Amino acid sequence: MDDEVTTTHTPAPGSTTVIERRGGGGGFGIIVGVILLVALAIGAFYLINQSKSTNARDDAIAGAAKSVEKTADKVGDAVDDAKK
């Protein structure tokens, strides 16, 4: 959108000419908007990956705990068999 305004006055002899120009400046707003959009996308990507990594870590810990539990059960069974 180009909202440039140009005003020209035709001077009478011995008077001053005034020329007024205003530029749009809309390009700067678009650049800032794109930068904010990119920053938002990067932040969302980071949060999604952080959540996935936390879930993977929790799953690994749970798997290790189950493995320890199974091993402890086997040791307990071996002790019971040794007592008999």
Describe the structure.
The chain is mainly alpha-helical and 84 residues long. It has one domain. Helices cover 69% and strands 10% of the residues. The protein has one helix and two strands; from the N terminus they run ββα. The protein has one helix at 26-83; strands spanning 5-8, 19-22. Strands 1-2 form a two-stranded antiparallel sheet. The radius of gyration is 37 Å and the shape is rod-shaped. The mean pLDDT is 80.
Defining traits:
single chain, two-stranded antiparallel sheet, mainly alpha, rod-shaped, 84 residues
* Uncertain regions spanning at least 5 consecutive residues: none
**For this entry, what is the oligomeric state of its chains?**
single chain
Mean pLDDT: 80
Number of strands: 2
Helix share, percent: 55-70%
- Strand arrangement, major sheet: 1-2
H/E element order: EEH
Beta-strand percent range = 5-15%
Radius of gyration based on Cα positions: 37 Å
Give the tally of structural domains: 1
Sheet having the most strands: 2 strands, antiparallel
Describe this structure in a few short sentences.
The chain has 84 residues and is mainly alpha-helical. The protein has one helix spanning 26-83, and strands at 5-8, 19-22. Strands 1-2 form a two-stranded antiparallel sheet.
Explain the layout of strands and helices.
Blueprint: E1 5-8, E2 19-22, H1 26-83
Antiparallel strand pairs: 1-2
